[in-house]
């Protein structure tokens, strides 16, 4: 285990610091920050509670709206959502909503609060395939409605991309384990090492449950035709999974080129630096002004010494040497590396699930499939591919299924 890999990057706020930050809030009526949160976590509500030293009330606001409040406090791209809506952004700088939320959920954990309560049993049961953020949120909502819930996970541990993709220094395993334990204590039964489509069929689940939620994450890394079957190439998903599984005990050499410019690419380059890679070069199709990655993650990468080369795309590859050409101006770049990591997107593995997938998503709008007992959520549903958006789909699919099973539709 490498200590740097497991060391959380951002320090938490102190009680004095969190109150000072909350005191910057303008107490907006119909607050834009809350309207901008996909999961409806209500930042305005919990910030107001913190401002008046009501940490317990703040924790209740977070947890009742977001079953993965501790996770989202660490990995949500708040600059894209709630902080972008913050009125203070037009005055000086937005309030650090994520850091306030982290303080609140840390307080909840330290004081052993038990906020969520299971609803009275309605005698119906739900099967959820996958155990990523949408699945975990949906499970909590179903339990609160009074359903029994079975979660089926093909891996040896629950969490999906939260566990096997997001680096330890951004999301400590201890934090994720506590979130999952809380959901199990609420009543969810998690079946590990169970691959639906191989160990059990979708028909088996439909026979035994009133509804089935397919919450399969995009866990497989995409490649590009020119890089196929190249022994010098790995996908971002492969590398991040290996790093997570081995607690940072991974090496791709001293000189690594990463191709891609999203948040996953930023996780790759910062992980490489954390595990001691000397030279990390990130070549990105987009130019800096149009970067898709979080500005905070990009800033962290630069701070750690990652070389960012923007505006170039690969034109050819010869073993471990890639030639890039600039998108807009005449120019060519040739780089050789010990390993090449492709962070050019991911796709879901849906073998045996009878899903019509196009570009990684189901082809219909909403969460219902043509099968009246089968619904979808998470990465394979339409929408952003962020943790907080997955939480949103988990909440919405639970509400949709509940309406159907209660005869409200």
UniProtKB/TrEMBL annotation:
<comment type="subunit">
    <text>Heterotetramer of 2 PreA and 2 PreT subunits.</text>
</comment>
<dbReference type="InterPro" id="IPR028261">
    <property type="entry name" value="DPD_II"/>
</dbReference>
<keyword id="KW-0560">Oxidoreductase</keyword>
<protein>
    <recommendedName>
        <fullName>dihydrouracil dehydrogenase (NAD(+))</fullName>
        <ecNumber>1.3.1.1</ecNumber>
    </recommendedName>
</protein>
<dbReference type="InterPro" id="IPR036188">
    <property type="entry name" value="FAD/NAD-bd_sf"/>
</dbReference>
<comment type="function">
    <text>Involved in pyrimidine base degradation. Catalyzes physiologically the reduction of uracil to 5,6-dihydrouracil (DHU) by using NADH as a specific cosubstrate. It also catalyzes the reverse reaction and the reduction of thymine to 5,6-dihydrothymine (DHT).</text>
</comment>
<dbReference type="Pfam" id="PF14691">
    <property type="entry name" value="Fer4_20"/>
</dbReference>
<feature type="domain" description="Dihydroprymidine dehydrogenase">
    <location>
        <begin position="6"/>
        <end position="111"/>
    </location>
</feature>
<dbReference type="InterPro" id="IPR023753">
    <property type="entry name" value="FAD/NAD-binding_dom"/>
</dbReference>
<dbReference type="Pfam" id="PF07992">
    <property type="entry name" value="Pyr_redox_2"/>
</dbReference>
<dbReference type="InterPro" id="IPR009051">
    <property type="entry name" value="Helical_ferredxn"/>
</dbReference>
<feature type="domain" description="FAD/NAD(P)-binding">
    <location>
        <begin position="125"/>
        <end position="394"/>
    </location>
</feature>
């Amino acid at each position: 285990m490498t200590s740097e890999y497991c060391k959380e990057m951002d320090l938490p706020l102190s009680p004095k610091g969190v109150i000072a930050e909350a005191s910057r809030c303008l107490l907006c009526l119909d607050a834009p920050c809350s309207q901008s949160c996909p999961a409806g976590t209500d930042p305005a509500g919990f910030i107001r509670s913190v401002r008046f030293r009501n940490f317990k009330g703040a924790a209740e606001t977070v947890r009742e709206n977001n079953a993965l409040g501790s996770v989202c406090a660490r990995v949500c791209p708040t600059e894209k959502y709630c902080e972008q809506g913050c009125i203070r952004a037009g005055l000086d700088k937005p309030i650090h909503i994520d850091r306030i939320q982290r303080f609140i959920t840390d307080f909840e954990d330290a004081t052993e609060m038990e906020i969520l309560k299971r609803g009275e049993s309605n005698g119906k049961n739900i099967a959820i395939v996958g155990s990523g953020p949408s699945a975990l949120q949906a499970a909590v909502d179903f339990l609160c409605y009074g359903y029994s819930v079975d979660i089926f996970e093909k891996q040896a541990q629950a969490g999906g991309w939260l566990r096997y993709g997001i680096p330890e220094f951004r999301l400590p395993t201890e934090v994720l384990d506590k979130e999952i334990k809380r959901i199990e204590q609420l009543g969810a039964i998690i079946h590990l090492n169970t691959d639906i489509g191989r160990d059990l069929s979708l028909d088996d689940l439909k026979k035994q449950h009133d509804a089935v939620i397919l919450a399969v994450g995009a866990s497989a890394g995409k490649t590009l035709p020119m890089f196929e079957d190249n022994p010098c190439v790995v996908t971002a998903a492969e590398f991040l999974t290996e790093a997570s599984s081995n607690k940072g005990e991974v090496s791709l050499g001293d000189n690594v080129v990463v191709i891609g410019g999203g948040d996953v690419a930023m996780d790759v380059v910062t992980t490489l630096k954390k595990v001691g890679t000397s030279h990390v070069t990130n070549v990105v199709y987009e130019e800096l002004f149009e970067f898709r990655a979080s500005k905070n993650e990009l800033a962290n990468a630069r701070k750690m010494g990652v070389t960012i080369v923007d505006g170039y795309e690969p034109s050819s590859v010869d073993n471990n040497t890639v030639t890039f050409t600039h998108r807009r101006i005449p120019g060519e770049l040739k780089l050789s590396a010990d390993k090449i990591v492709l962070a050019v997107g991911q796709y879901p593995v849906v073998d045996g699930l009878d899903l019509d997938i196009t570009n990684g998503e189901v082809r219909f709008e909403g969460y219902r499939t043509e099968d009246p007992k089968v619904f979808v959520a998470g990465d394979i549903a339409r929408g952003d591919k962020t943790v907080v958006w997955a939480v949103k789909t988990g909440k919405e699919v639970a509400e949709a299924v509940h309406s159907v099973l209660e005869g409200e539709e």
